[in-house]
Write a structure and sequence with these properties.
- Helix content is about 50%, strand content about 15%.
- By secondary structure, the chain is of the alpha/beta class.
- The chain starts with a helix and ends in a 5-residue tail after the last helix.
- It comes from Thermohalobaculum xanthum.
Length: about 325
């Protein structure tokens, strides 16, 4: 099935309305049309709206319409937004989520599924300690590097490159370690910054690269797969707890059920969207992942030394990889 057909079906189902609704529940995210964030939010909304009938309606606002990731986290607390879909920024909410910032720690989706099945209570506790609750696990995907200076084969090729990163401390540390000049920036600002030369490059999954049209303003794509970033359907623990119990139950069920659809779309993106990027004239190379893994040891050491329970988190997640 073509990715456009998958997305159209999800969007159509999410848009079905049964008339007047008792509640409008706003779902804000930063993804552009055609992004995996959009597909994730729409899959959740589709399932939820079918289950809720006229009790409530989940309405999706993408493209940072309701704010960037940091603003959406604040708006959840204030009750101005009901759902957000943060990814890397969760490492700034609680250090526990920083474990997913460790390079190459997650091997594939099956590995992530085992991690979540075994360790969800750990991450849920970290979210709730900060006033949030995770009601669904989605994904942002495996991240790769684009830039306008040179192909990136080994970490030393990043020397001096001004690279946009999300606003998470560990991603900044990682690219400093590799020799780049990391620049945290809101996703909505990246295209213009690339176009005007304020930054040389950025790192994101194919779905974010293609949907934001970074291929129009980048010369090189280096397939590094340096980090796999989960996405989280996030709510305010307090405000979610105030919803009627049957509404909560339906939303929790859909948070769980939507993941399979999102993973299906994500897997198809990895072939379809790589072709989109190549067809735009971007030069693509496979990076030397072993070289990046070897260069990453110091950031693991720092995580273990500075984050409470860090060594245990790394050991548990690594131990759930296939063949471990």
């Amino acid at each position: 099935m073509k990715i456009s057909t998958l997305l159209a079906g999800v969007a159509l189902a999410a848009g079905i309305s049964t008339g007047a609704h008792a509640l409008e529940l706003k779902f804000g995210h930063v993804g552009e049309p055609g992004s995996l964030f959009q597909a994730s939010a729409e899959a959740f909304a589709s399932c939820s709206n079918a289950a809720l009938g006229d009790k409530a309606e989940v309405v999706v606002f993408g493209s940072s319409q309701l704010g960037n990731d940091k603003e959406l986290l604040q708006k959840l607390k204030l009750g101005q937004v009901d759902f957000a879909l943060p990814s890397s920024i969760m490492s700034s909410v609680d250090d526990t989520f920083g474990v997913f910032e460790m390079p190459y720690i997650i091997k594939d989706r099956d590995h992530m599924t085992r991690v979540w099945a075994e360790m969800e209570p750990t991450f849920q506790a970290a979210a709730q300690k900060n006033g949030y609750r995770i009601i669904g696990l989605m994904e942002n995907g495996f991240r790769h590097i684009t830039n306008n200076v040179r192909p990136i084969n080994k970490p030393e090729d990043l020397a001096g490159i001004k690279l946009r990163t999300p606003k998470g401390a560990w991603r900044v540390k990682m690219f400093q370690l590799y020799g780049a000049n990391p620049t945290p920036m809101a996703f909505s600002e990246v295209f213009t910054a690339l176009q005007t030369g304020v930054i040389d490059g950025q790192e994101n999954p194919y779905a974010q690269i293609a949907s934001a049209k970074f291929q129009e303003v980048q010369k090189y794509l280096s397939i590094t797969g340096h980090v796999y970033t989960p996405g989280y359907v996030l709510v305010s623990d307090k405000h979610f707890g105030n919803l009627p119990e049957d509404v909560q139950a339906a939303l929790l069920q859909c948070g769980e059920e939507s993941r399979a659809k999102v993973y299906e779309i994500a897997a198809q993106f990895e072939t379809d969207l790589l072709k989109v990027i190549k067809d735009a004239g971007v030069e693509v190379n496979e990076a030397d992942k072993d070289a990046f893994i070897a260069a990453s040891k110091p950031i693991y050491d720092e995580f273990a030394a500075t984050v409470e329970g860090g060594p245990v988190l790394v050991e548990k997640i690594s131990g759930l990889a296939a063949g471990s």
